[in-house]
Amino acid sequence: MERATSVLTDPYSLSEQARAAVYHNIFTRRDVRSQFLPDQVSDLVLSRVLMAAHHAPSVGFMQPWNFLVIRSKAVRQRVHSAFLLARAEEATRFESGKEQQYRRLKLEGILDAPVNICVTCDHERAGPAVLGRTHNSTTDVYSTVCAVQNLWLAARAEGLGVGWVSIFKPTALQQILGIPATISPIAYLCVGFVSYFLEKPELELAGWRSRTPLEKLVFFEQWGQDHCEWSDGIVQRIRHIQEREGQGVMAE
Amino acid sequence: MERATSVLTDPYSLSEQARAAVYHNIFTRRDVRSQFLPDQVSDLVLSRVLMAAHHAPSVGFMQPWNFLVIRSKAVRQRVHSAFLLARAEEATRFESGKEQQYRRLKLEGILDAPVNICVTCDHERAGPAVLGRTHNSTTDVYSTVCAVQNLWLAARAEGLGVGWVSIFKPTALQQILGIPATISPIAYLCVGFVSYFLEKPELELAGWRSRTPLEKLVFFEQWGQDHCEWSDGIVQRIRHIQEREGQGVMAE
């Protein structure tokens, strides 16, 4: 759909600069909770971001998603109340030191962000038989999450922060937003311009959890095999990229 | 992590050209089944694509994913056999005309693509209590799908096609790849350079299903509300972008 020929070397590869832009966007995307500005998001920018979401892959081209765009303060206040209840419940699941830390964390920007978007999944969008969904009916939810990630990355490119809030009782969003019981709310997103993007994920900076070295998460040919005859080069490259953190994956 | 300052106007917004690159990449990403080339994918490119996946958002910074990289022809042949069995089952779910069409579609490139990647979700990665996962335990799967979409978009930027194959009996991949029963295979991806990317999704070109106009999928303030006092501008922008398909969302 996009013909930004200036950014291409040929129709199928991106230029080095365009590729660097895509990686930059992926690596600087953040789950934003604290840095939202009240500035309104224009119709044009919102439309572009929604269009990016709609161009996600979907199982059997099912396009099972809907996008419920919320600006009303009253609606956001009801959602925020539901969040507070669920957060109080979740806090008790952690042991004392961790619970104290949990209670200090800012976990959402429902009222700070001028726009909220609830992304839902309609499991019946394409009838009972869907190509690719026969053996795993959850694949429609996977498609919906792909749309969320597309939206998130397009938003980052526009300078918009996005925060995904998942601390709600299961039926709270359905009740507040009038979503039928057969439709699953998958993501509740806070969207708005930000004063800045953090250098690293907020939970990492807060000492909640660390980033796992990628090479510990990659297996070769079979589960649990952390090396094989051709894996050394990949592991070395991964370590190299991690050591140069901040220099960019495109630096060599 | 990436500091491609040349593509930035300031640390928080992308330049117009960089933004166009991100959108171009999102809109030209395809689920590839038929255009794979046998050319090997370098360690460097594979590492970059995996690193992009690893920088997906995750609930409670859980990073529940693993990446099982497969090049072995023997392993891919076993996976392909499992696909053929499941495809034969799925074909019977469609009515006669549609079943004929289904049987003619090429649905995977397991043996054509030189690299296959199985992306899995470890539901116990961060212990029993995970921030943001208390009220919906499936959020770890959502995080894993975000990693898949990051991988897919990074691959597109490298000129690599990706095809997600979901036509397998539930335990087939676990048996073939030695994945423990407690770990869920979420995506089985065929990855390789391509002769070209299709202009539109393959299932759309094949007449299997059409793309839904986005404005029919967007609601405002409450479920089912297709307009409100501030929605006209967004709907108009969406229609405008759709009418200019091929001109690009950044054209105005």
What attributes characterize this protein structure?
alpha+beta; NADH Oxidase; four-stranded antiparallel sheet; disordered N terminus
Please describe what this structure looks like.
The structure is a homodimer of 252-residue chains. By secondary structure, the first copy, chain A, is an alpha+beta fold. Chain A folds into two domains: 21-208, NADH Oxidase; 212-247, no CATH class. Helix content of chain A is 37%, strand content 13%. Chain A has helices spanning 16-28, 43-54, 73-91, 96-104, 139-157, 172-177, 202-205, 232-243; strands spanning 65-70, 115-122, 160-165, 183-193, 218-220. A four-stranded antiparallel beta sheet of chain A has the order 1-2-4-3. The longest helix of chain A has 19 residues, at 73-91. Chain A is globular, with a radius of gyration of 20 Å. The two termini of chain A are 31 Å apart. Strand 1 of chain A pairs parallel with strand 5 (218-220) of chain B, so a sheet runs across the interface.
How much of the sequence lies in strands of chain A comes to 5-15%
Oligomer: homodimer
Structural class of chain A: alpha+beta
Q: Into how many domains do the coordinates of chain A divide?
A: 2
By DSSP (H or I, 4+ residues per run), the number of helices of chain A equals 8
Q: Specify the overall morphology of chain A.
A: globular
Quickly name the level 1 CATH class of the largest domain in chain A.
Alpha Beta
CATH homology superfamily of the largest domain in chain A: NADH Oxidase
